[in-house]
Amino acid sequence: MKKLFPILAIALTMAFGSVNASTNTNMNTTTTTIVSPVQDDASAEQVESLGFHQELKKRFIEGGPGFMGIVLLCLILGLAIAIERIIFLNLSTTNTKKLTEDVEEALASGGVEAAKEVCRNTKGPIASIFYQGLDRVDEGVEEAEKAVVSYGGVQMGQLEKNVSWLSLFIAIAPMLGFMGTVIGMIQAFQKIAAVGNLSASLIAGDIQVALLTTVFGLITAIILQIFYNYIIAKIDGIVNDMEDSSIALIDMLVDHKK
Question: For the residues of 8-74, what is the DSSP string, one character each?
Answer without folding.
Answer: HHHHHHHHHHHHHHHHHHHHHHHHHHHHHHHHHHHHHHHHHHHHHHHHHHHHHHHT-HHHHHHHHHH
